[in-house]
Design a protein that fits this description.
The complex is a heterotrimer. By secondary structure, chain A is α+β, with helices and mostly antiparallel strands. Chain A has helices spanning 3-20, 48-69, 77-84, 91-106, 116-122, 134-141, 172-187, 285-298, 302-310; strands at residues 28-35, 38-45, 86-88, 149-152, 157-160, 191-195, 198-202, 211-216, 225-231, 239-246, 251-254, 257-260, 275-282, 314-319, 323-326, 334-336, 342-343. Chain A is 34% helix and 25% strand. Chain A is globular and about 60 Å long. The radius of gyration of chain B is 23 Å and the shape is elongated. In chain B, 29% of the residues are buried. The longest helix of chain B is centred in the first third of the chain and has 19 residues, at 13-31. Chain C has one domain (6-167): Arp2/3 complex 21 kDa subunit ARPC3, CATH 1.10.1760. In chain C, 48% of the residues are buried. Classes of the chains: A alpha+beta, B alpha+beta, C mainly alpha. Chains in contact: A-B, A-C, B-C. Chains A and B meet through β1, β2, β6, β7 and β8 of A and α1, β6, β7 and β8 of B. β8 (211-216) of chain A pairs parallel with β8 of chain B, so a sheet runs across the interface.
Chain lengths: 350, 126, 174
C-alpha cells in the first residue's frame, strides 16, 4: 500500500470521529402556548432553529383547529352551525364530525357530540356551573342523538335538527393533537407535546428507546402522578397519544352533592360511576380523546373492552377507591408509583 | 518483533492524551444543559429565565398580567393572582425540571427546564 | 501438513475464528449479568483478532472478525449484529494500519486506539440507525472504557503473542 494513501485512510478514521461530534447538538427545546382554553407545553428534540419553526407551525395548527371547533368562539364553524342549524363547513371540520359520529355509533351513544344543548344548561364551560331544573334537562334531552346530525358529503353542508347543539369538547384536543402530529411527521424530529392534558408522543426521544408518561393522581396536584406508562412509538412515523377523561377535572358541589362535567347522553346528568378517570392510549388523537369519554361514560365492562379492542386502543381505568385496571396491551409498560393505588383483575371491578 | 519487549512506550501517550481530551470536551458539552432554570412566559413572551440553583434569598415578582410569583432557593410558585379559579396558586411549588404551573386567564405559564433524571416522566397526562 | 501451506493457514484460521466466537459469546454472557453501561465491554476477542493481524495478515484477521460478527448476528439479533460489524470492521482495519504504519506504538497503544474506534463506530451506527443524535452522551464513558480495556487487552497481547509464537513457530504472514 502506498504510504500516502494509508496516511489518508488513518486521517479519515480520525476525521469521522470529529464529524460525529456535532451530532451532540440535538437538544431538548421547550415551548409553551395556549389553545382551546388550555396550556400547551412542547419539548422538541432538534437544533434550536428547527425546533422553533416546528413549534410555530404546531402552535398555529392547534389554534386553527380551535377556530374551527370552539364552543366559546362565536365565529368558529361549529358555533355558526349551532346558531344557524345548517352551515357549510370545511373539509377538516366535516372529517372530524364524521369520525366522531362514527366512534359515537361504535360506542352505542356513550360518546355523543349532540349533547351541546344539555351541557349549556349545566354551564361547565363558564365560571359558575349549576344544577339545572329537571324539566329543562328533560326538554333538551330530546335534542340529543346522532340522528339529529346530517352531513351532505357533496355540498359539504352539515345540518342539525331543531334545537340540537354540537359540543366537541370531548374530541377537540384530540383533533388538535392530530393536526400537531401532522406537523411533527413532516419534520421528523422527536417531540412530546402536552395539550391541556392530552399527551402526544412522536418519534424516539434522544438517547432512549421510549418515553415515560405519568398518569395524574386524581387526588393530587397538577404535577403529581400515581403511575407511569412506558410508551414506544412504532418506527416509521410512529406516534402515541394519550387522553384522559376524569370526573376530577371540573366539578362543583351543590347541597352536599358533587356534580362532575362528563354527562351521560342518555340521562343528561353527570354519569353515575365508580370511576374517577379513564386514560386511553392509541396512535390517533381524536380516537384517544373520544374513547376516553366513551369508556368513562360506559364504565369498565365488556362493551368498553370490545370497543377498545376493535379500535386497537389500550386503556387504564382508575376507580374512586384507588383500584386500577389496565388492558392487556399495557400490562408490561404500566407501573404504579404510588402504593395507595393497586391493580385489580377485571372480575374484581367495583 | 520489536513490540514484544515493552508494555507501554512513549508514543502510546499520544492516543491516550487525545482520548482524555476528547472525553473532557464531550463531558463539558453534555453538562451545559443541566441547570434547573425556571422560565416565566406571559402572553407568549418569555419574561424571565431564573436559575433556581443560584437563588439565595426569597423574593416576589409582580407581573403586568395580574399575577405575583414567589421565588425561593430551588423553587418558584404562584403567590397571588386576580383570576377567579386560583388554579395557578394551587399548583404549588415547582422545584424540578418538567413541572409546570399556569394561570390561563392571565396567560401566564411557569415551567422548569433542565436535565431530567430517568425517573421524571416526559409528560403527565390528565 | 506442509509448513505454511494454504491448508495449514485455513486450519489455523478456523481455530482462531472459533476462539474469537467463543470469547465473544462468553464475554457477552458475563457482561449481560453485570450492571454495565451499554457498549462497555472488555473486547477480549480483539486479542485473537489482533494476533491474527500480526501472525497471519490483514485479510485473515478481517475474515475472522467477519465470522465473529456473523455469529453475533445469528445469536443476538439484527441490532447486535449490525453493531458488531460496524465496530469490528473499523477496529480490524485500524489495527492492521496501526501495526504496519505506527510502529512506535506498543500493542497497548494499538489496542487502546482500536477499542475506542470500535466503540465510537458503534455509537455512530446507533445514531444513524435510530436517527437520534443524543446517544452521544455515552461517548465519554465509551472512550474511557475503550482506553482502559485497550490497555488490558494490550497487556494480554504482550503475554499471548510470544507464547503463541513458541507454539506455532511456523506461522508467517500469509
Amino acid at each position: 500500500m502506498h504510504t500516502a494513501a494509508v496516511k489518508r485512510l488513518i486521517a479519515l478514521l480520525f476525521l469521522f470521529l470529529f464529524f460525529s461530534l456535532p451530532a451532540c447538538t440535538a437538544e431538548k427545546n421547550s415551548f409553551t402556548g395556549f389553545a382551546m382554553g388550555s396550556v400547551i407545553t412542547a419539548d422538541i428534540y432538534a437544533d434550536r432553529k428547527a425546533a422553533e419553526k416546528i413549534w410555530q407551525m404546531a402552535d398555529a395548527e392547534a389554534n386553527r383547529i380551535d377556530s374551527l371547533l370552539s364552543g366559546t368562539d362565536a365565529s368558529s364553524e361549529i358555533s355558526v352551525l349551532n346558531r344557524s342549524g345548517s352551515a357549510a363547513c370545511s373539509a377538516q371540520t366535516l372529517d372530524i364530525l364524521r369520525r366522531s359520529l362514527e366512534i359515537g355509533a361504535l360506542s352505542d351513544g356513550c360518546l355523543d357530540l349532540t349533547v351541546g344543548a344539555v351541557t349549556a344548561l349545566w354551564g361547565f364551560a363558564g365560571e359558575n356551573p349549576s344544577l339545572p331544573a329537571a324539566k329543562d334537562i328533560a326538554d333538551t334531552l330530546k335534542t340529543v342523538g346522532a340522528d339529529h346530525v346530517a352531513i351532505d358529503d357533496r355540498s359539504g353542508v352539515a345540518t342539525l335538527s331543531e334545537g340540537t347543539q354540537l359540543d366537541l369538547g370531548a374530541v377537540g384536543k384530540g383533533a388538535g393533537a392530530d393536526a400537531m402530529l401532522d406537523v411533527l411527521k413532516k419534520n421528523a424530529s422527536p417531540a412530546v407535546i402536552n395539550f391541556g392534558g392530552t399527551v402526544l408522543l412522536y418519534g424516539r426521544p434522544a438517547g432512549r428507546q421510549s418515553w415515560t408518561v405519568g398518569l395524574r393522581d386524581p387526588y393530587g396536584d397538577a404535577n403529581s402522578y400515581f403511575a407511569t406508562l412506558t410508551c414506544t412509538p412504532g418506527t416509521n412515523d410512529g406516534a402515541v397519544i394519550l387522553s384522559t377523561s376524569g370526573s376530577y377535572e371540573k366539578q362543583f358541589v351543590f347541597e352536599g352533592k358533587s356534580y362532575h362535567h362528563i354527562l351521560d347522553p342518555a340521562t343528561g346528568y353527570p354519569v353515575e360511576t365508580a370511576l374517577s378517570g379513564v386514560t386511553v392510549v392509541s396512535s390517533e388523537g381524536l380516537l384517544s380523546d373520544a374513547l376516553s369519554t366513551a369508556c368513562f361514560v360506559s364504565g369498565l365492562n365488556d362493551s368498553s373492552l370490545t370497543l377498545l379492542q376493535n379500535a386497537d386502543a389500550q386503556a387504564v381505568f382508575v376507580f374512586a377507591d384507588k383500584s386500577v385496571y389496565v388492558t392487556d396491551g399495557l400490562a408490561d409498560s404500566f407501573r404504579i408509583t404510588d402504593r395507595d393505588f393497586h391493580l385489580i383483575a377485571y372480575e374484581e371491578r367495583p | 518483533m520489536k513490540k514484544d519487549r515493552k508494555l507501554l512506550r512513549g508514543a502510546d501517550l499520544i492516543p491516550l492524551a487525545v482520548i482524555l481530551i476528547l472525553c473532557a470536551v464531550l463531558f463539558i458539552m453534555s453538562r451545559s444543559g443541566k441547570k434547573t432554570v425556571a422560565v416565566v412566559v406571559e402572553n407568549g413572551k418569555t419574561l424571565y429565565e431564573i436559575d433556581l440553583e443560584s437563588v439565595t434569598g426569597e423574593y416576589t415578582i409582580a407581573l403586568d398580567s395580574g399575577v405575583t410569583l414567589a421565588v425561593s432557593p430551588g423553587a418558584i410558585c404562584f403567590l397571588a393572582s386576580d383570576c377567579k379559579g386560583r388554579d395557578c396558586i394551587r399548583c404549588g411549588k415547582l422545584t424540578s425540571p418538567g413541572q409546570t404551573a399556569a394561570c390561563l386567564p392571565n396567560k401566564t405559564i411557569v415551567y422548569i427546564t433542565g436535565k431530567t433524571d430517568e425517573k421524571t416522566p416526559d409528560a403527565v397526562v390528565y | 501438513m506442509k509448513k505454511n501451506s494454504p491448508a495449514q493457514r485455513a486450519a489455523i484460521t478456523g481455530i482462531l475464528a472459533s476462539l474469537a466466537i467463543a470469547t465473544a459469546f462468553l464475554e457477552r454472557a458475563v457482561c449481560a449479568a453485570l450492571p454495565l453501561p451499554p457498549g462497555v465491554r472488555p473486547g477480549l476477542s480483539n486479542i485473537i483478532v489482533t494476533f491474527a493481524c500480526t501472525a497471519m495478515g490483514f485479510p485473515y484477521a478481517l475474515g475472522i472478525a467477519a465470522v465473529k460478527s456473523a455469529f453475533t448476528l445469528l445469536s443476538a439479533g439484527v441490532w447486535a449484529g449490525i453493531l458488531s460489524f460496524s465496530g469490528g470492521m473499523i477496529s480490524v482495519t485500524a489495527t492492521a494500519l496501526l501495526l504496519r504504519y505506527a510502529k512506535k506504538l506498543s500493542y497497548a497503544g494499538v489496542s487502546v486506539i482500536s477499542a475506542c474506534l470500535h466503540n465510537l463506530s458503534q455509537l455512530f451506527a446507533v445514531s444513524l440507525l435510530s436517527g437520534s443524535g443524543a446517544y452521544w452522551y455515552l461517548a465519554p464513558v465509551l472512550l474511557l472504557s475503550g482506553a482502559g480495556f485497550g490497555l488490558l487487552t494490550g497487556t494480554a497481547l504482550n503475554a499471548v503473542i510470544p507464547a503463541l509464537r513458541k507454539l506455532f513457530p511456523f506461522i508467517k504472514k500469509g
